[in-house]
């Protein structure tokens, strides 16, 4: 059963479907890029490959927060070279339940 991982990013909430994720793990050490890009924190070495770590806060229009602690969500193949840091997971919802609520509310 697919689940929806929900996290709070500043004042907003974001969700990722577990079917679109390769893994969720503690935030690894991130090497900053030599030329800064506003949406990229840097790169991390995970499971034998380099992963580009996208800064979730500016992506959502929020003020950046330190990402040393927390979690890293890595996308599933073929995009498993991209990861998103999260301070913490707020909740995990059954995606089928979410669809049922959406249908009963008429969209």
Outline the structure in words.
With 107 residues, the protein is mainly beta. It is built from two helices and eight strands, in the order E-E-E-E-E-H-E-E-E-H. It has a five-stranded mixed beta sheet with strand order 3-6-7-5-4, with no helix packed on it. A hairpin with a 2-residue loop joins strand 1 (3-9) and strand 2. The protein is globular, with a radius of gyration of 15 Å. The two termini are 22 Å apart.
Radius of gyration from CA coordinates: 15 Å
Unreliable segments of 5+ consecutive residues: none
Number of helices: 2
Major β-sheet profile:
5 strands, mixed
Q: Taking all residues together, what is the mean pLDDT?
A: 86
| Class derived from helix and strand content | mainly beta
- Taken as a percent bin, the fraction of beta residues is 35-45%
Strand order, biggest sheet? Answer: 3-6-7-5-4
Helix proportion range: 10-25%
The arrangement of helices and strands along the chain is EEEEEHEEEH
- The total count of strands amounts to 8
Shape: globular
Distance between the termini: 22 Å
Index terms:
107 residues, mainly beta, 5-stranded mixed sheet, 3-stranded antiparallel sheet, 8 strands, 13% helix
């Amino acid at each position: 059963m697919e689940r929806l991982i929900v996290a709070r990013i500043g004042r907003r909430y974001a969700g990722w479907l577990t079917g679109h994720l390769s893994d969720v793990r503690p935030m690894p050490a991130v090497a900053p890029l030599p030329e800064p890009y506003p949406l990229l924190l840097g790169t991390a070495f995970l499971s034998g490959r380099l992963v580009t770590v996208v800064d979730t806060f500016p992506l959502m229009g929020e003020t950046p927060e330190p990402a040393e602690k927390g979690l890293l969500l890595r996308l599933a193949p073929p995009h498993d070279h991209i990861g998103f840091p999260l301070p913490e997971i707020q909740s995990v919802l059954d995606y089928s339940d979410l669809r049922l609520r959406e249908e009963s509310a008429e969209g």
